[in-house]
Amino acid sequence: MAKIQISPSKKGTTLEILQYLFIAVVLMYFGRSLFIPLSFALLISLILYPVCKWMERKGINFNLAIGISLIAVTFLLASLFFLLFSQILEFSNEWQSLETKLEGTLNQLSIFLTDQFGINEEKQLSYIKNALNNSGSQIFSLLKDTLYSLSESLFYLLIVPVFSALILFYRQLLVEALYHLFPLDKTEMIHEIIVETIHEYYKFIKGMLVVYIIVGILNSIGLAIIGVPYPFLFGFTASILTFIPYVGIMVSSLLPITVAWITFNSIWYPLGVIAVFTLVQVLEAYIIFPYAVGSRLKINTLAVLIMIIAGGILWGAAGMILFIPFISIVKLIADRTEGLKSLSLLLSDGKQFQ
C-alpha cells in the first residue's frame, strides 16, 4: 500500500494554522467580556454603515447620520424589551387565578398520594422540607448565576451602542489601519473583503428574519393543535423574544402556559405548551437556523452547525449568534488565499459539485 507523503512546507503550514487557531480560541474564551460586546457592535456597525452612507449622500451631517441610525436600533431593542416586560405584566395579572389553580392541583396531588401510596400529610410535608433544605444551596447558586447574567447583559446593553458609534465614527481610520497591516498588493483584496463582508452581514440578517418567521409559524401551529387560545399571538411573540437568549423564550412561554392551565383545568395542556416550544427550539437551533442562514451565506449546514456548537461552548448564547457571521468572513478570506483553498472547499455549500 502506497504511503502518502506530506511535504515539510505543508506540515509547517498546518502546524502554524493549528497554533494560530489555539491562540485565537484561548483569547476569545478569556477575553469574552470584551470581545462579545465588541463583536455585537461590529455587527451593528456593518449593518448601519450603508444606512449612514445613504443619509450622508442626502446631505445629512456625518455625526447626525450615526446618531439617527443608532437611535433606530435602540428603539428596536427597546420595543423588544417592552414586549418582554408586557408579557411579565400580563402573567402577573393572571397570578391570582394561577395561585388558586395551583393550590387546587397540590391538594389533588396530596389526596392522590394518600389514597394510592398511603403517604399522609405529615410525611409529605417532611419530604418537601427535606427537598427544600437540600436544594437551598442550588437555589442560591442559581440566583447568583442569574444576577451575574443580568448584570452582564446590562453592561452589554450600555457598552454596545458606544462601541458601535465609535466604530462608525472612526471607520475610515480603522480601514486605513487595516490596509497598512498588509502589503500594498493586497489592498484591493482587503477592500473587496470589507465590501463583501457588509453584504454577507445583510444576508445574515435576512436569514435571521426567515428563521423568526418559520419559528413563529411552527409555534402557532403547535399551539393551535393543542387548542391554546390566541395561538398566533403567543407563537410569534415567543419567536420574536427568542432574540433575547434564554430569558426571552422562558418569559414568552409563561403566559400561554398560564392561559392553557386556567382555560382547560388540566396539567396536560401546559405540558403540551412546554413540549411545543421545546421541540421548536431544538428544530430552530439544529436544523432551521443552520439551513436558513447557511444557505444565504453559501456555507454548508454542517459547518454552520459546528460553529453554533463551538460558539455556544466559548461564548454561550451570544457565540451561537455571532460565530455564524464570523465564519462567513473566514470563508471570504479563504476564497482569496491560495494556501486556504481546502478550508474554502470545506465551508462551501458544495453547489459547484452538483
Structural descriptors:
disordered N terminus; 354 residues; mainly alpha; single chain; 86% helix
Helix content: over 70%
Global morphology: elongated
In angstroms, what is the radius of gyration? 26 Å
Largest sheet: none
Which H/E pattern describes the elements?
A: HHHHHHHHHHHHH
Q: How much of the sequence is in beta strands?
A: under 5%
How is this structure best described in words?
It contains 13 helices and no strands. Helix 3 (62-93) packs parallel to helix 9 and helix 8 packs antiparallel against helix 9 (247-264). By secondary structure, the protein is mainly alpha-helical. The model is unreliable at 1-7 (pLDDT under 50). 24% of the residues are buried. The longest helix has 49 residues, at 121-169.
In short:
This protein is mostly helical and 354 residues long. It has helices at 8-30, 32-57, 62-93, 95-117, 121-169, 171-180, 187-226, 231-241, 247-264, 268-297, 301-315, 317-335, 341-347.
List the helices and strands and how they pair.
Elements: H1 8-30, H2 32-57, H3 62-93, H4 95-117, H5 121-169, H6 171-180, H7 187-226, H8 231-241, H9 247-264, H10 268-297, H11 301-315, H12 317-335, H13 341-347
Helix pairs in contact: 2-3, 2-5, 2-7, 2-12, 3-5, 3-9, 7-8, 7-10, 7-12, 8-9, 9-10, 10-11, 11-12, 12-13
